[in-house]
Amino acid sequence: MNKEIYKNPIFKSNPVTVLVLGICSSLAVTVKLEPACVMALSVIAVTGFSSFIISILRNTIPNRIRIIVQLVVVAMLVILVDQILKAFSYEVSKQLSVFVGLIITNCIVMGRIEAFALGNKPIPSLIDGLANGAGYGLVLVVLAFFRELIGSGTLFGHQIIPLSWYVKNGGFYENNGLFILPPMALILAGLLIWAQRSIQKDLIEK
Amino acid sequence: MQDLLNIFVKSIFIDNMVFAYFLGMCSFLAVSKSVKTATGLGIAVIFVLGVTLPINYLLNTYVLSPGSLSWLGPEYADIDLSFLSLIIFIAVIAAMVQLVEMIVEKFAPALYASLGIFLPLIAVNCAILGGSLFMQERGYSSVGEATVFGLGSGIGWFIAIVALAAIREKLAYSNVPAPLKGLGITFIITGLMGIAFMSFMGIQL
Amino acid sequence: MDTNKNSYTIIYSTVMVVVVAALLAFVSMTLKDRQQRNIDNETQKTILSSVNLVPDIETAADKSAYVQDQYNKYITPLVFNTKGEKVEGEAFKVNLSEQTKLIKAAEALEGEARAKALENVKLPLFQCKMDDGSIVNIIPVYGAGLWGPIWGYIALQSDNETIYGATFAHKGETPGLGAEIATTHFSKQFEGKKIYEDGVFTSVIIAKGGAKPDTVNEVDAISGGTITSRALETAIRSWVSLYSSFLGQNK
Which of B29, B143, C71, C225 fits a disulfide with C44 by CB distance 3.0 to 4.6 angstroms? Predict the structure, then answer.
């Protein structure tokens, strides 16, 4: 099978940093690593399965209601994810609040369905969806890693920066509160794009 | 009255859809290259948010939330349809966008010519669905509050996109490092604007 | 097959809607109990933390089982009316937001009508039997903050006038300002404060500019969180005052 299907979306044509798809809701959940990971998994599941289902149905969908059928399938999957999170991971689902629901309007889901799943067989579509979800999740997790480490001194809630370093314990260190605030997510994303495009020069915009 | 003003100011400046929640970023980045198109999309967003929020509020209060069907009779009081809210909200938004498009086309062709192409884009704009979801999450107590919240959020989005477009127009003359050009610098500018908007946080009415 | 025929489109969408609705309804029903348990667990935890009875929550292997055990061990939920009489009902299921609406409506009335309207308000009370045998009454408070609801629990020592402990929570207060009410730093101040002075209900004053040192019922307001502080003070006053006859009775 063609390896590019799952290799490209993660690095070379990453949906967030290259195609500008689906950054909308994602950045608000990157304050902590744990919700970011759960969000990443949710998106991977939704992109993968929605592409899969649409690809199975692709020859039966009446053209006139194509977008609506896609929306219904995506919405159904998102509701499933939301219900499962509420039942099995309540703490995290509270932190994600409305952002799980916003996966529906995440352009990356509809984007992959339109661009790939409608014209390809189910299995490649599934892989394409999963890989694009993973590329998206990777950006989330990288951002969350830096924001939690620098902003709260923790990772997954575990203290990483030694407590004795902190000013209040007689040390020299203070958490950078700016990283917890929303604007820093955007600036970090900008820096991430900078880093990526410095390596892959062909992506540079004129 | 004071409550309404509170919600209005808060949704424009403090809980700004773009700067605080990153909602509607896709179209935000795509159309923020010129002030003119940005204005068109901004107005369309205000309009659709202002129309869909009250409708979704009524649906949420009288159909979807737990126990809300009790007006049909006591035996319906236990029904909880809240798991359907996502699907209903998105359907209402899609239908409203379609309706607005048709009405505008019929009665204001000039407006349609300038606004029309943006309307279909809006159905999948996260800011619109986000507005409905925040409304449900925060439990506004009346249609008035929900409408004001919708209009406020729309205006906040409008301000953000027009301001960014203006900055990007000027940015054409600056010497930005090549890998940062386009998307990268736009992200960073949005972040800096977000920091500027945070100075509104202390506002209390 | 012609997928563009009207009849095909209609049948297709009908089948799709039915399948999706059935699937979602099924999942929702299956997971409902579990979700409700999570929400209940959260409330139980908040109640228990107002009396500091969840000390091991961070280290417990099964957090929800731990909270459930502690709750069953210590807490007896009861429901009262404003006359201090026990009424039927499950304290846990009382919707505080609805009761607050009733209270607000009643407060707009005067004299007889007001007392009458207040009689319908259900007052949940969580009685906590401490390890040393003393009874601590935990009273819920609920109100509208600056941006959304704020709520909490106030625990009273067995003299029914000294605060044993308190916890507060909020939905969307400004981070760093109003949101500070949810911190232990803020709620710790309530410990040992008195809500009655010489038998007169004084409630707790959340004083802007800091509590005066010689008072027994003042705590420091949150700097920059004036509206939230004031809202919390109002919520405490209007809720706790309704328990007056109950608290007097049990003295």
Answer: C71
